[in-house]
Amino acid sequence: ALQAIYGDDAGDAPVRLEIASPSEWRFRLGADSILEVFVPRDYPSLQAPTPVLHAPRLGDRASALVDQLLELYEGAEVVFAWVELLRQELTAVEEAVAADAEAAAAAEVAEASADASAPGCCGSPGRCHSRRVRHVGSAPDDPRWRVCVTSGPPFHPPKSGPGETMQAHVASVTCIEQVSWVLSHLLSDRKIAAASHNMVAYSFVDASSGVRVFDNDDDGEGGSGAKLASTIDNKGARDVIVVVSRWFGGVHLGPARFKHIASVAGALLEEQGYCRGRTGGASRSNKKGA
């Protein structure tokens, strides 16, 4: 399945897989980052693979990310989730660099302008939001993209705070416009919009090209989007978006939160009949988040 997603036949996917040997896999993430994965014979049931990350752009963050990758292992296939988490981190670094450059350029223009203080002028843009703003385009206003969204029951994780709740939502999608509609629909609910995190993953087959389109967004809960993407892949779900809303209850759950996030998502996918066995075929990643 990884060869189909990241191999030579994966179109314009931003990640490339090179299999050096049955026990050594190399994933090229962009121009200067490589994830080496050393796979033991008893993977995935008994022993986790060993990740070695070469990512100059991440600096000191790389070591912490390797620890985070190992936390995602729960006795099941995990390499797809690793790659997606790293892809997301590297994309965030690129976006931050671009935003800093844009802000610096705007500051220079504002400083050089003689009438920078005149009414209607604004200063350089600040970055005051801790989370990325989702842009859903015009799809939410178009009834053509409306689909049925199913929400699962609220789940209260054990050993969590009194207000800790997770809830999964799923819908069938076949295009990015439907993905946007689902997100807009869910976020129009004030309770869901007020959640600490609304984590997203989706996968569908593009009708025009016949290839698989997929992406995920952890909404500030690092690694959760990749975990949801892995859940979709492991369940063999197709043409689906899954969102998990989490209301933080004040008690840090540690790595157990990933298990709960995947559990509520997987349970609703199974209940709604999306699980059809492992996916395959030519694939690609949609670089832009939902």
From TrEMBL:
GO terms for biological process: GCN2-mediated signaling; regulation of translational initiation. It holds the Pfam family Impact_N. One of its GO terms (cellular component) is cytoplasm. Residues 167-267 form the Impact N-terminal domain. InterPro entries: Impact (IPR023582), Impact_N (IPR001498), Impact_N_sf (IPR036956), Ribosomal_Su5_D2-typ_SF (IPR020568). Signal peptide: none annotated. Belongs to the IMPACT family. This is Impact N-terminal domain-containing protein. It comes from Emiliania huxleyi.
